[in-house]
Amino acid sequence: MSRDKHTLLKAAHRTSPYNHEKGMLGAFEYWLSSKNAECVKAVDSSTTTGRMLGVVVWFKQLPAAASEVPPPGVDKDEDEDEAEADEKIKTEESREEEKKPTDPLAQLEALTTSHLTSYQARIQPAGTKALVIGTLAVDPSAQNRGVGSLLIKHGTEIADREGALCWVHSSDDEGAVKVYAKAGFVLDDVLVVRLDEWARKAGIEGRFGDYRFRYMVRWPRSKPK
């Protein structure tokens, strides 16, 4: 990610520069603590140390069991329900207004997160079986050797057995896009962010250009019988 334009912009923040290494360490701590996440690594078996060549984090998201669904509430008067719903909406809107960040790069983060959340709600409605790639990284010295494809295959084989879709929120990396496409992923949506405009708002010098967050999806090639 040393050449990733979005990461470079965040690292150029005037008061709170983003530290990618620290950020990824925190992310892996979270992923490893999640019961739905599976961290898979590829190692070089030809070395005595088993040098790590790449890693992928797959999130297995399966529908909740019936016992996990909360029981329905007691029926109330329709007018009372509408009044409570209106009050809840007003309260939530008020809270959202209070939480809106003033820092331009924090606003950019909120925008991309909101877009990701909306995409997930569309592609993966309640009850949908899905495997989601949280991150995929390959050592530069091991690239173009099939490592990334092997790590992706681990999840897609599970998805095909389970009849689950796969999707990924990819960075603006043509190499990664080609690897996902080779594994059967197709481009489904794109969020284009004009980084120079956000840099100007944040008082950051430099040219960062446009950045494309790509959403790619892969449908199962076989379904469970």
Automatic annotation (TrEMBL):
Signal peptide: none annotated. CDD domains: NAT_SF (cd04301). Pfam families: Acetyltransf_1 (PF00583). Residues 67-105 are annotated as: Disordered. InterPro entries: Acyl_CoA_acyltransferase (IPR016181), GNAT_dom (IPR000182), Trichothecene_AcTrans (IPR052523). This is N-acetyltransferase domain-containing protein. Residues 86-102 have a biased composition (Basic and acidic residues). GO terms for molecular function: acyltransferase activity, transferring groups other than amino-acyl groups. It comes from the Eukaryota. PANTHER family: GNAT FAMILY ACETYLTRANSFERASE, N-ACETYLTRANSFERASE DOMAIN-CONTAINING PROTEIN. Residues 76-85 have a biased composition (Acidic residues). Residues 78-218 form the N-acetyltransferase domain.
